[in-house]
Amino acid sequence: MTAISTETGAARRVEPRRFRFDIGSPTTTRRALAIAAGVALAYLWAPIVCLILFSFNSNSITKLPLTGWTLDWYAMALSNERLMDAVLNSLIVASFAVVICMVIGIPTALALDRYDFPGKTAFRRMVVLPYVLPGLITGVAMLSFFSMVGVQLSLLTVIIGHGTALTGIVVTNVFARLQRFDRRIEEASADLGAKPFQTFWYVTFPNIRGAVIGSSLIAFTLSFDEIPVTFFLTGRDNTLPMYIWSTIRRGMTPEINAIGSIIIVVSVVLLFVSVFIMADDGPNKRLKK
Amino acid sequence: MSSQRSYAQRRRMGAIALLSGPMAWWGVVLLTPYVIMFMISFYSRQFPLHIPDFQFGNYGILFTDPQYYIVLLRSLKIAAFVSILAFLISYPLTYYLVFKVKSSRVRLMLYVATIIPLWVSYLLRAYTWKTILGSEGILNSLLMWIGITDEPVTFFLYNQTAMVITMAYIFTPFMVMPLFATLEKIPRSLIEGSKDLGVGPYRTFLKITLPLSVPGILAGFTFTFCLAAGDFISPILVGGPYSNMIANVVATQFGMAMNWPLGSAIAVVILIIVVAILTISDRFERVGRLNLG
Amino acid sequence: MGNIIELQGLNKSFPGGVKAVDDVSLTIKEGEFLTMLGPSGCGKTTTLRIIGGFEFPDSGRVILDGDDITDQPPYRRPLNMMFQDFALFPHMTVEQNIGYGLKLGGSNRAEVSEAVATSLKTIELVDKANNRPHELSIGQRQRVALARALVRRPKVLLLDEPMSALDAKLRETMQVELKHLHKKLGLTFIMVTHDQTESLVMSDRIMVMDRGRIVQVGSPTELYDQPSTPYVANFLGTSNMMLAKVSEVSGDTVVAQSGSNSIRAKGSGKNPSVGGQVMLSIRPEKIRMLTGGAAAPDGFNVISGTFREHFFHGGSAQIAFDIGGDKPFVVHHQLDSAAAQSQLPAPGSEVQLTVDPASVTLFENVEACEAEDRL
After folding, report:
1. DSSP helix/strand/coil, B245
2. Pairwise CA distance, residues A149 & B155, whole Å
3. How many CB pairs under 8 A join A and C?
């Protein structure tokens, strides 16, 4: 801050008033924060790193120090029939659930973005509710529903459960993308002769594609790991998390480490990809002035 | 006039066409189950089944039997601790990401690195904490290896502390996401303006940044609290004898105890608590948003 | 050349009670360049959007070439719009943008590429055919938007503030180019703008709007020289506005007192009563300074003014005088010679100003507060 002294006409420098706790320079703060951030990140990734490390450990008990490197656990995991069945089931469930998410989620997001109708706020809350509500409750409610209607628990019920719980993700992401969307290019499209569905297909959809694909990938990954809803809706066929859950109750087998590592690595890759698909607006870069 | 009618008509038809599918789906798949669950909460139990009825007995049990309401209160308490711990971990991290990382590419990558663990196998991550904290686990063997202790330390695992640590770990990304979004939106010019007026960095933080980040903090707390309150995995994996949470109770009612009415009643209560929290925080968030102008 | 568009009693209100368009009726001649002019919020854009089909009026009709198109959605109307920020499809190339309408209209691929190629040649962007909009400069984007709107040969071209995104130099160039294009194509152009210079330069007719209503429609010259209200007088160009009281009326000459000044207005076509309140409007460029003891021409008004300050505009100067009111009296002084330069008054000096009574515009029935308010 500078103050100009009117008498001499010269500028005098005034120091900012120092607060009692202003210790150190901005660099110190920055370093302290960086350390805190580093610790937090380490905290977040430590178990994952540990898991992957121990999947290669030749000692079947997870204990330091590491004894040796082996791929035995991976071999065991891949040859475990029940485990592989569970993986297949999870793939089936995830795929169909994602389809439901897209088919229901995109029109829902469009409707919320464009139209005002009675009960809109309630509808909006309801759609997002399974996302925030402990999965337990959705699971319990759907179980009651299926039993009252007389539907037997099976992969189908699991698929429906996942569809319900995960559509909120697609809706919120597509809705957010629609909100940032410049409505005028749709008007331009209509002006040039495109009927409403043509405008959607040629103009709107290409611009929300990133959000659709990205959020679908996230939904897919989440379906793979879904436990609370699945817990209540599983019939005879287990999904992977259910299999792991039952195995873990009895004690950790190193096979779980192995299959877990594979799942984690695949999930991380899929998620990275999806986030970058959504963040990168692609041909939609803000028109630079 | 006819032009308005046909235009409005056309719009309405479009809206109906668009909404009919999703509405039907949501109605059948979401609304109906919740309603049914609500209905069953009033049924009476006749072991091993339940019969249609309308009585508040189940709710009565929940609120009068210590076996149940203590668990409910414990769950809320633990959820609160989890939220606070998650907050303490998340805020410095997010603050650093938003304000101290200059390159937006790096920032995005670090942000993604923070968020992704959220979506990677809760179960496996929670389990790995068990192996880390256990008496045969990594932390102990590390301590023994270094020579700090001779015997395994048992207080890390199978108690409420372990649950809080594990859950805070699992739910931290839920705190980071809204915080990040809110902090990013704070106009830098406000902070620079404050410093320009002679206010030092800490005071600027307390008076400008922190208050403006409240909507994000609130949203983060809401998510974390609600999800932690309803968690049933951590108690089983890393909890001890007094770690049962309300979600486990519900699971048991639908499992071995075969008491669906009671389970539904408890679930309904949880639902109401969550919706209440959401509504309240929604109102606050709206006010917060006004302040950001 | 008949009438191509007829607007009949259009009304539109928005939620919140804002009446954007208030009983707007207008006939637009085929082939003319009509500008809708006014400040933001006056309803000009809404009116344009109603013509284009992006808004629907609460009442009233839009007739295009004899057909009632009021209820038609935009894709069924044979007109095209050039949007304010161009609204180019960001995910398509220039070529795809221009060809979009033709492709959807059912033309086969050969026809489309031929039309697009011709179009690209006309706007001189052949080498940018495969670029995306964000890779082009603003001027280039505007040309693409124009080409896209024209390639389908619409009957009418609507332009929504087409120059607002351009900088001053580019704007001037585009104004001329658009005028040439209009002449060459012979289409009807309807443009919306808040820039009065633009409207004066480009239009055949101007429609001035205020708070949803049409205030005056006419050629640029008509609106400039014979504004029907003080609002129009002050919106197009600048004007010295003075409240005055009528002291004498004889034939087509009206004498009114404004403060200590007695001013004659001739040929206004108005017949106010003696003692009534009027508003006088005198344009700065119509006022001359009497220098070197010269006398005013016969019958001309002479006003005494004290020099206050002047603003240099390069080729001219705006000189502000104090003539006894609370607002400065501005005179436009062309600096077309060294002599003109030397005629700039000295600070504080008294100067005689003269103006032809025929150049004084008179407005009757003006409420004092309204006048102050709008100016």
Report:
1. coil
2. 48
3. 79
Q: Which chains touch C (3 or more CB pairs under 8 A)?
A: A, B
Q: Let me know: does C188 contact C155? Beta carbons within 8 Å.
A: yes
Helix (H) or strand (E) holding A216: helix A205-225
Per-residue pLDDT of chain B (293 residues; tens, 9 = 90+): 444 556 667 777 777 777 788 888 888 888 888 888 888 888 877 666 667 777 777 788 878 888 888 888 889 999 999 999 999 988 888 888 888 777 777 888 888 887 777 777 777 777 777 666 665 666 666 666 677 666 656 556 677 887 888 888 888 888 888 888 888 888 878 878 887 787 777 887 888 888 888 888 888 888 889 888 888 888 887 777 777 888 888 888 888 777 888 888 888 888 898 888 888 877 776 554 443 32
Q: Which long-range contacts (C-beta less than 8 Å, at least 24 apart) are formed by B96-103?
A: B96/A33, B96/A34, B96/A36, B96/A37, B97/A37, B97/B180, B98/B180, B98/B183, B98/B184, B99/B183, B100/A30, B100/A33, B100/A34
**Mutate which: C49, C71, C72, vs B, most B CBs within 10 A:** C71
- Tokens matching residue C87: 């609204």
Report which DSSP code applies to B100: I
CB contact under 8 A, B10 and C70: no
Q: Round to whole Å and give the CA distance between B178 and B221.
A: 9
Burial bucket for residue B186 (CB in 10 Å: 0-12, 13-18, 19+): middle
Which amino acid makes up residue B190? Answer: L
Cβ contacts (< 8 Å) between A201 and chain C: which residues?
none
Tell me which chain C residues have a C-beta less than 8 angstroms from the C-beta of A190.
53-54, 73-75
The overall longest dimension of chain B from CA atoms, in Å, is 89
- Which ipTM score applies to this complex? 0.78
* H-helix or E-strand spanning residue C7: strand C3-14
Same domain, C158 and C287: no
Residues C204 and C254 in one domain: no
Q: What sections of C284-355 are H helices per DSSP?
A: 338-342
Distance of CA C25 to the CA centre of its chain: 18
Interchain contact B2–C (C-beta under 8 A): yes
The alpha carbon of residue C125 is apart from the nearest alpha carbon of chain A, in Å, by 19
Cis geometry, peptide bond prior to residue A228 (ω within 30 degrees of 0): no
Q: What is the count of structural domains for chain C?
A: 2
The whole model's pTM is what? 0.75
**Shared-domain flag, residues C120 and C189:** yes
Of A192, A275, B149, B97, whose CA–CA distance to C78 is shortest? A192
A206 touches C at CB < 8 Å? yes
Q: What's the CA gap between B107 and A128, in Å, rounded? A: 28
Chain A residues with CB inside 8 Å of C105's CB?
193
Instruction: Give the side-chain half-sphere CA count within 13 A for A155.
Output: 17
Work out the number of other CB atoms within 10 angstroms of the CB of residue C17: 6
Place of tokens 């809760």: B122
Task: Please indicate if any CB of chain A lies within 8 Å of the CB of C186.
Answer: no
CB half-sphere exposure, B121, CA atoms < 13 A:
30
Q: What distance lies between CA C303 and its chain's CA centroid?
A: 31
Which candidate from B3, B6, B10 shows the least CB-CB separation from C57?
Answer: B3
Choose one of C218, C233, C248: the last residue of a domain: C233
Contact with chain A for residue C371, Cβ under 8 A: no
Angle between helices A254-279 and A81-114 (to 10 degrees): 20
| Residue pair A193/B87 in contact by the 8 Å Cβ criterion | no
Residue of B nearest to A106 (CA): B22
Question: Which domain range does residue C355 map to?
Answer: 238-374
Domains of chain A: 73-284 (1.10.3720.10)
CATH number at residue C357: 2.40.50.100
Boundary (domain end) residue, out of C207, C233, C259? C233
